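Severity: low
Component: inverse-folding endpoint
Summary: output formatting inconsistent between runs
Steps to reproduce: submit the following structure tokens with default settings.
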């Protein structure tokens, strides 16, 4: 591993850790918005905090790791294939109760994101065979691409502290925000809209 890549990985891990410690400054967990959709089981002391307002200076500038993912049809894919689109990258698992609660929000968000020139991509962690994942996706009406990833890759390459763990990636292939815990479609669409309106994450002109 080169020194430059090591420094980038270290900075990325530090940024995610800082975001978690400082009250999820890089994004909103559902517990911050006290969304009644999640019920009592999803609430915490964080529900007493007001929503966190963020500005242009809060956007992260972390290059996306160069990782190849397996797809459900036996192929491979990478985030570089989606350069030029805004991507909401959602690490999740079929075994994860908070992930299951979040899925309907992601399904609705995908409908809006597609119209905005973006997409959700959901790498599934430790979720069985492709056939098992396809069956689960059909039961939950998932309408966005699902990839397959190991927990080791999610943790070591993307610094996932738990699941679900979500990243907002600009058209330029740079991670601009991270989210720990399940999210609402309102939060995700709001942040994508702000990212586009402020011009952050735009792909450089050739």
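Observed output (run 2 of 3):
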């Amino acid at each position: 591993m080169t020194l430059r890549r090591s420094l980038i990985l270290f900075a990325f891990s530090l940024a995610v850790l800082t975001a978690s410690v400082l009250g999820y400054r890089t994004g909103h967990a559902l517990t911050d918005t006290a969304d009644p959709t999640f019920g009592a089981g999803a609430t915490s002391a964080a529900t007493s905090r007001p929503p966190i307002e963020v500005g242009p200076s809060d956007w992260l500038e972390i290059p996306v790791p160069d990782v190849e993912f397996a797809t459900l049809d036996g192929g491979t894919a990478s985030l570089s294939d989606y350069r030029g689109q805004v991507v909401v990258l959602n690490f999740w698992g079929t075994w994860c109760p908070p992930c299951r609660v979040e899925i309907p929000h992601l399904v609705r968000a995908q409908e809006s994101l597609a119209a905005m020139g973006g997409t959700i991509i959901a790498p599934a962690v430790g979720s069985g065979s492709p056939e098992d994942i396809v069956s689960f996706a059909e039961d939950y009406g998932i309408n966005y691409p699902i990839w397959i990833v190991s927990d080791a890759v999610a943790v070591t390459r993307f610094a996932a502290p738990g699941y679900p763990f979500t990243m907002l990636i600009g058209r330029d292939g740079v991670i601009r925000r991270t989210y720990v815990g399940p999210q609402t479609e309102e939060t995700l669409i709001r942040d994508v809209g702000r990212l586009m309106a402020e011009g952050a994450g735009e792909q450089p002109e050739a």
